[in-house]
Amino acid sequence: MPETDSFVANDFGAESLPVATAAEPEILVAFNGRDVGAAGDSAEPTGMYFGWMERGEDRPVREFEIYNSGDSDLVLGDVEVPDGFRLVHEGSAWPGANVTQIVRPGHWLSLKIEMLTNQVGAKRGTVTIGSNDSSEPLTSFVIRGDVGSDGAEDSIGLFNQVSSTFELKGSKYDDSIDQSTTFGPGRSTEWLPVTGDWDGDGFDTVGLYNSRTGVFHLKNSIAPGNADHLFAFGPSGNAGWIPLSGDWDGDGVDTVGLYQPGASRFHLIDSLRGGAADHFFSFGPSGATGWKPLAGDWDGDAIDTVGLFQQDGSQFHLKNDLSGGAADHYFTFGPASSDWQPLVGDWYSTGIDKIGLYQPDASLFHLKGSFSGGAADHYVQYGQPSHYGEWIPLSGEWNGRHNSGSRYPLICFCVTTGPIQTPNIVLLYQGVPFIQETTPATVHPPSGSFDVMSSQSFGSDHTSPSARSEFWESKSPAGAEAEQESAGREGLVDQLLTNWSEDI
User: Fold this and answer.
1) Cα(122)–Cα(84) distance, rounded to whole angstroms?
2) Does residue 292 share a domain with residue 174?
3) What radius of gyration, in Å, describes the C-alpha atoms of the chain?
4) How many Å apart are CA 248 and CA 28, to the nearest integer?
5) pLDDT (tens digit, 9 = 90+) per residue, 386-398?
6) Which CATH number do you get for residue 166?
7) Which of 415, 498, 463, 328 is nearest to 45 (CA)?
8) CA separation (Å) from 459 to 6, 7, 295, 488?
9) pTM of the entire structure?
10) d(CA 298, CA 318)
11) Does residue 354 sit in the same domain as residue 298?
């Protein structure tokens, strides 16, 4: 449940904000009636928040309006947006350069910005708008957004080598969606479990690696029966190589790999077939014993990479790319020289995999939400206490990615304001300007009276404005021009402010 943020808005009981009248353009830029780029800001704006989106979902579009409250034509030039966003123009990206638009006094144009959702992570940067504002030729404001994982969090599971049974917990919090299946011959330590999304449908399923024959047997469902993918990769004859799985090329389909302990070498393939490895590199000390391979997306780029768990020191060594060299994340978690076993998963649906440990004698999972030592962030008891090796820990999205549509917590339009200059850029959204801060403060006009800011609470915005076909769009049709001219520019701004106050 998102918390309600508090914002500060104009106290409409006080005098309205005066608009300077000079033979210059005065530019106002707003979103949803709230000012996000007043010229002369005394502090950097904290920005406009696009919301939280799941990776790969529809891209949210925010439409800003640029209003000319001055007495002469406003000439708009280059518009630049930060990485992770794009300008919308006829349904495609607009380069942002060599764009010249003229806004007549009392008229406005729209500017649409889209947040890209192809990569997980926080996005932040500055939008700049060039104009013929003599005091500030570049107006800027900060935009932000967050892209999370596909909406599902990884859960845990166990594999029993004796019965060849997979026991999969559907959720850390819900026992009603647990699953169980038998797959494989059983009663053999030669068969090792692997899990992954072998067909790209968003559901992780099960598989087995026969170390004696060097053959992978992979299922597209959590059910008994014949394997859907069957192929040999790596040496046969119980060479001691350890299987692992991951999406090594970011195509949304998991494949497999092998870790060669004696040489500390990884052999990874990008498709479900035999043959030579697509990725081949050494990471970690050769000749060491007790080191176990890991695979996960440690940086949220949708590509799985590798890691190692050093059993004697209970240390994790994680790499952000498929190469050798020093670890990008290195930390100690759990007791040294124990029989606790490592596992990897996105426990909190952040798009970034973290680690965990399975404690066999208590059948207890210790899950971490960060790359650090200390206490576990989450504990899950699952299964029956056992001896080392009797049950092997697993992780995966057994119930698939829950794409329930765009999820927006409270949209935060947090901007600081300062002395208002002439000409002054003002952003509009839905025809309404606004001025606000994240903490109570005072807006100082060039002279005369001022508006006292008071705290306001705004509700959640759960919708994404759809993109329109044009980059710039005139917002002053002929039917509205007479009303604008008769009201006057100062009167129009006052009217818009009043309308906005009634809306909230």
Assistant:
1) 9
2) yes
3) 29
4) 48
5) 877 789 999 999 9
6) 2.130.10
7) 415
8) 10, 11, 41, 32
9) 0.56
10) 8
11) yes
